[in-house]
What does this fold into?
Amino acid sequence: MNDKNPGEYDLHDFLLDDSFFNYYFERNEEDITRWKTMLALDESFAERAQKAGELLGLLSLKLPQNEFQQEYRKLENYVFQVSELKKSLDDGTDASFSRRPLRIRRIIALIAAASVILFVSVLLLIKPSGSVITTQVVKNEGLRKMFFALPDGTHIDLGINSELQYESDFNKTDRRVHLRGDAVFHVKKDPKRPFKVFEDRLTATVLGTVFNVIHDASDSTFSIQLLEGSLQVDMTVSNAAEFRTLYLKPYQQILYKPSTGSFIKERWNPDTLSTPVNHLVFKNADFEHVAKQIKEVYGITMVNRSNGKQWHFTAEFTNAAFKDVLQNICIVEGLKSDLRGDSVLLR
It folds into this structure.
């Protein structure tokens, strides 16, 4: 990072700052933390950084070696011509330009200097690579969870209608995945390469643990439930200019509601699935009545996605665990269920 104060930064200061590159492309944890802190303290500084980031996003390219060499020679020839023009303007050796008004010469010199800055920025962003980095996409379009392993040995239970994305160079320098939907992560421990899961505005960072990520599309609620190890969860606010962090211990969960911005930590009990209840009675009950009793007795949230089906559920249970009650409900009402932590979806 250069010696300027944040208030003095302009566009090219961001583009020529290695630490800002590391922050934007998420290459260095120390730089990421430092920039997040600075951006959170100065709204104007954060706005300028956002514009610089948008430019980086437009300019960043990854080219094969042969294409890189061709583009490099073109840019090198161009910047040489621009540099010579600027030099002739500075020392007055170009008679045709020296006769122009001073104001016009200064404008041309400014354009030349800006072109050199842009050339340097492009060279920093257009990087030769022996192999093209591609995005690997795993989609679960089936009717049950999908089990698979990542290159580092991490095992994933991917939920129905869920998707996981990761780069083809996964585990070489870092371990990052992007999730849409639900998944259970059994993360392979690696202190040198933290495992990061991105979904919506949430980022879960772990070294080695087992946890659930659940997205309830009915009310857009996200929950992250920890079973083993420890977990750090960050919520990004206002275009990365601000973030909040919570830490989880086993059998704690985080609930996040984008609609309200609610981001809270609470306990949850996975044993409710097998803990029996003495007596439970339903008489011609609709879904709302069944769901209310299940929540009160077992602490399980039921989500109805059975396309407006009318319920008339009648049953009596003695010393029954929730999984037994759920099985009975599905048989009587002709439904399928999908358990997700302390929630169950009925279809």
